[in-house]
Specification:
Number of strands: 5
Number of domains: 1
Number of helices: 8
Radius of gyration: 16 Å
CATH class: Alpha Beta
CATH architecture: Alpha-Beta Complex
Distance between the termini: 30 Å
Helix content: 40-55%
CATH topology: inorganic pyrophosphatase (n-terminal core)
Shape: globular
Strand content: 5-15%
Strand order of the largest sheet: 2-1-3-4-5
Length: about 200
């Protein structure tokens, strides 16, 4: 089994959506995969997103599993279930561990300067020729993660790749024009409901 997972401290929407979508892609390619995490979800994964018909899988990692890491490349912060020696792929947009993983995994280490790991995951679907098979809920989840990570496509880390990915995903998902405003408003309400807990889940 291939376990697609992320960090141990918390799971934000970029990691959450990326793990789910990449596990789906691997399964479509004939590779048994599960998206799992033992980390708490933070407020970027709004209740609306949690209610969508796509989510993490119920699976406990075993000594026979291999791991794909999404939105993280620092081994000291991997999910507690991960054995770094059994990591077979890394997809991340945070700098710092490029040489380490490229030496270990070669082309299966994609640590790139883009605004969201979900942009990279979307591109994997396109490269595999399977974007047509992505369901609308997964497309909406990936699009929302790109919105969140790039601050509504206005942050300094936003790139043309993020913009292109968001446009394609939002179109496939049929997202309404006011979706960004509704999503960020929902996140803000959840954060303000318990600000100390929200901050703690984002550190």
């Amino acid at each position: 089994m291939i376990v697609v997972t992320s960090g141990s401290a918390y799971l934000d929407v970029d990691a959450y959506a990326g793990c789910i979508a990449f596990a789906q892609l691997l399964n479509l390619q004939g590779l048994a995969a599960k998206a799992i995490s033992s980390a708490p979800l933070n407020q970027s994964i709004s209740q609306t997103l949690r209610d969508w018909p796509v989510g993490l899988d119920a699976h406990h990692a075993t000594e026979h599993d291999h791991f794909v890491m999404i939105d993280i490349s620092d081994p000291s912060h991997f999910d507690t279930c991960v054995d770094a020696q059994r990591v077979v792929e890394v997809i991340d947009h945070h700098p710092g561990f490029e040489s380490y993983w490229q030496q270990r995994l070669g082309t299966r280490a994609a640590i790139e300067a883009v605004g969201a790991a979900c942009t990279q995951v979307y591109e994997r679907w396109v490269e595999a020729g399977l974007f047509h098979a992505m369901n609308s809920s997964t497309a909406a989840l990936l699009a929302t993660a790109i919105l969140d990570n790039t601050l509504n496509l206005k942050g300094q880390i936003n790139t043309a790749r993020d913009q292109q990915a968001y446009a394609a995903l939002a179109d496939k998902a049929g997202l309404a024009q006011d979706w960004p405003a509704r999503y960020f408003s929902e996140c803000q309400t959840a954060i303000e409901h318990d600000l100390p807990a929200a901050i703690n889940k984002d550190l």
